[in-house]
UniProtKB/TrEMBL annotation:
Bias (Acidic residues) ranges: 59-68
Region (Disordered): 57-87, 194-215
Ranges of residues in domain Transcription regulator PadR N-terminal: 6-58
InterPro entries according to UniProt: Metal_resp_DNA-bind_regulator (IPR052509), Tscrpt_reg_PadR_N (IPR005149), WH-like_DNA-bd_sf (IPR036388), WH_DNA-bd_sf (IPR036390)
Protein name: PadR family transcriptional regulator
Start-end of Low complexity biased regions: 69-86
Amino acid sequence: MLELAVLGLLHETPMHGYQLRKQLHARLGTFRAFSWGSLYPTLRRLQRAGLIAETTDAPADEAAEEGADTGASARARPSSRGSWGAKTRRGRRVFELTAEGKDRFDELVAEAGPQTWDDEAFGIHLAFFSRTPVEVRMRILEGRRRRVEERREGLRSTLSRTTEQIDHYTRELHRIGLESTEREVRWLNELIAAEQRETRSSGPDDSPPDTTPEA
């Protein structure tokens, strides 16, 4: 999933490591907390696979970004001058998508199997729905709805069977889980309905051709 997230963000624009990390947290932090420990090994792997390439900013670009790289964020970065994303005399290392990387991203966003319905994967796929084929979006949304409905029914069954067997706090834990799944099912229903309306409105014109003879 981190591979999909990185390729998706670099599909929009080249970024250096610090920018990429910020965007991962800004766009996907609700679904997953990414760390330096997982990001940079992924970047190395993608580069070795030829899916991303490394270029270098002009040194003048560093001054404009100086304010963004101070404080806690700067302390969190690797301190080695040769480490990934660190400043050098040549400027800052920037990562961009290769043609192979674009193909790999298209392949990943076209997936719609059960793995895309999981809690972690679904959020990341959803973040790149604007680049996902409509039929794939529908399969993912419908699959996610089935997954959450199954979870909802399981919670309902648990609550009905164990009302007298669990304490108040455990029962409340199950209840908040049930409410969460019910809200998500309603939200998914709205998304699916919106996709269906968009599909109908963008479909071919089914009206009969104009056969009125010309004057």
